[in-house]
Write a structure and sequence with these properties.
The complex is a heterodimer of chains A (117) and B (117). With 117 residues, chain A is an all-beta fold. Helices cover 0% and strands 51% of the residues of chain A. In chain A, strand 7 (56-58) and strand 8 form a beta hairpin. Chain A is globular. Chain A has strands at 3-5, 10-14, 19-21, 24-26, 31-38, 44-50, 56-58, 64-68, 73-78, 87-95, 106-107, 111-116. Chain A has no helices and twelve strands. With 117 residues, chain B is mainly β. In chain B, 36% of the residues are buried. Chain B starts with a strand and ends with a strand. In chain B, the strands form two sheets. In chain B, strands 2, 4, 5, 6, 9, 10 and 11 form a seven-stranded mixed β-sheet that branches. In chain B, strands 1-3-8-7 form a four-stranded antiparallel β-sheet, with no helix packed on it. The chains are: A mainly beta (117), B mainly beta (117). Chains A and B meet through strand 5 and strand 6 of A and strand 5 and strand 10 of B.
């Protein structure tokens, strides 16, 4: 069964500093990886995804993520944090090919990012 | 482009009552998903439709939950009878296609927050 681990429940970073939100995954075969952000009382908003190709993926709002197959990681990064980046961030994985099985997307528990002015 | 619409936004019911949620996906999106997000956890897939057919309902508690997408567009999710542990946010998402490729990004609605007393 596939799974996602977000080891930090909360990440605090000062405005203007670089930020990293960690994600590791487990899946059979090659993964498709996603990052979503959730603001209070709102649904999830898509940030970026890795399907194939370049290991460094660039997404919305200046975010990027690096796929590392050997470490089974897909950490989310941003060079300079903004107060408005404060939100809940979810990493998700699904298998690229599942044969007769489901392409079900599995989410981590989320990491709360707080950017301090 | 209009996003995924959901109603109601909030619902409070007593245990053993029934409740229904409605979702209208992004126009042209063939695939529709219902997720359950319990406080402090990531979304969990309940059911996935491709047009009006069910692709995956392996995690749907079928003794009390039901869902339909009769005309391949909007969908309803019903709980009957509700239990205390059903208190959660119910998210609807849609994607252009299913099974892989760059078009399969899921876009989420704002969710329905259910409280069962």
């Amino acid at each position: 069964a596939q799974s996602v681990a977000q080891p930090e429940d909360q990440v605090n970073v000062a405005e203007g500093n670089p930020l990293t939100v960690k994600c590791t995954y487990s899946v059979s075969g090659n993964p498709y990886l996603f990052w979503y952000v959730q603001y209070p009382n709102r649904g999830l908003q898509f940030l970026l995804k890795y399907i194939t190709g370049d290991n460094l993926v660039k997404g919305s709002y200046g975010f990027e993520a690096e796929f590392n197959k050997s470490q089974t990681s897909f950490h989310l990064k941003k060079p300079s944090a903004l107060v408005s980046d404060s939100a809940l961030y979810f990493c998700a994985v699904r298998p690229a090919y599942s044969g007769a099985g489901s392409y079900q997307l599995t989410f981590g528990k989320g990491t709360k990012l707080s950017v301090i002015p | 482009e209009a996003g995924v619409a959901q109603s109601p936004r909030y619902k409070i019911i007593e245990k053993r009552q029934s409740v229904a949620f409605w979702c209208n996906p992004i126009s042209g999106h063939a695939t529709l998903y219902w997720y359950q997000q319990i406080l402090g956890q990531g979304p969990k897939l309940l059911i996935q439709f491709q047009n009006n057919g069910v692709v995956d309902d392996s995690q749907l508690p079928k003794d009390r939950f039901s869902a339909e997408r009769l005309k391949g567009v909007d969908s309803t999710l019903k709980i009957q009878p509700a239990k205390l542990e059903d208190s959660a946010v119910y998210l609807c998402a849609s994607s252009l296609v299913w099974g892989g490729g760059v078009q399969e990004t899921q876009y989420f609605g704002p969710g329905t927050r259910l409280l069962v007393l």
